[in-house]
Inverse folding.
C-alpha cells in the first residue's frame, strides 16, 4: 500500500513540476555576450589643438596701422577648436564647430587673433576592422566653413569667412567612448584672400 501511495503522489505532483519548469525564464543564448558596443556612435564632443599657418597677412586698414606695411608676410600660431556633433551614419557626421587662433607675423606687423564658429561635415571613405569585426580605424575627408572675427580690428581684418578642408585619420580606442586622431587642412580666409594650413590632433568623446 505504501508503494502504491507513493506512486500515486508522484503522479499527482508530476504536472505541477512540469508547469514550474515551463514557467522558468529561458537562459540567454550566450551569457558571455557583451551588452554594449565596442565602438560608440551618436552625439559627440571633440577637442582639437594644433598649429595654424598663413602664407600672407595683408593689412586691412594701413592708416590705422601705419607700421604694419601692406603685409606682415607669413604668420603662424596656436589653434584650438571644439566640435559638438552627431554621427549620421558610421561614415558620415555633421558638427557645430568653434575655433580660436593667435597668429604672429613680422615684428612691425604684430600679432592678431581669430575667433569663429560654423559647421563641419565629415565623410570616412575607409574603415579597418579589428579581430572582433569592429571598425576602429578610419581615414576621412572633411570640410568646414566658419564666420570669424579678428582682433585688433583693422589689422588682418574685422570679420572674416574661413573655409578649410582636408584629410584626417581617427582611431576608436578600447575605452569605448573615446577616439583619437589627427587632421591636415588647407585653410583660406576669403576676405583677406589669404591661404594657409592647419595641422592638429583630435580627441573625441561619444555619449
Amino acid at each position: 500500500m505504501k508503494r502504491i501511495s507513493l506512486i500515486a503522489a508522484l503522479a499527482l505532483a508530476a504536472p505541477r513540476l512540469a508547469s514550474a519548469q515551463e514557467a522558468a525564464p529561458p537562459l540567454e543564448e550566450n551569457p558571455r555576450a557583451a551588452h554594449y558596443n565596442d565602438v560608440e556612435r551618436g552625439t559627440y564632443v571633440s577637442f582639437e589643438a594644433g598649429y595654424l599657418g598663413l602664407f600672407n597677412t595683408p593689412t586691412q586698414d594701413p592708416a590705422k596701422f601705419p607700421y604694419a606695411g601692406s603685409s606682415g608676410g607669413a604668420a603662424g600660431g596656436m589653434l584650438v577648436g571644439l566640435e559638438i556633433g552627431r554621427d549620421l551614419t558610421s561614415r558620415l557626421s555633421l558638427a557645430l564647430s568653434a575655433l580660436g587662433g593667435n597668429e604672429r607675423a613680422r615684428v612691425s606687423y604684430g600679432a592678431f587673433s581669430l575667433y569663429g564658429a560654423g559647421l563641419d561635415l565629415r565623410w570616412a571613405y575607409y574603415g579597418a576592422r579589428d579581430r572582433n569585426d569592429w571598425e576602429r580605424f578610419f581615414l576621412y575627408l572633411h570640410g568646414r566653413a566658419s564666420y570669424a572675427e579678428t582682433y585688433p580690428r583693422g589689422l588682418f581684418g574685422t570679420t572674416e569667412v574661413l573655409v578649410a578642408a582636408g584629410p584626417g585619420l581617427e582611431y576608436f580606442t578600447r575605452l569605448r567612448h573615446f577616439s583619437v586622431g589627427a587632421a591636415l587642412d588647407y585653410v583660406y580666409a576669403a576676405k583677406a584672400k589669404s591661404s594657409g594650413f592647419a595641422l592638429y590632433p583630435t580627441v573625441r568623446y561619444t555619449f
About this structure: Helices lie at 2-23. The chain is about 10% helix and 55% strand.
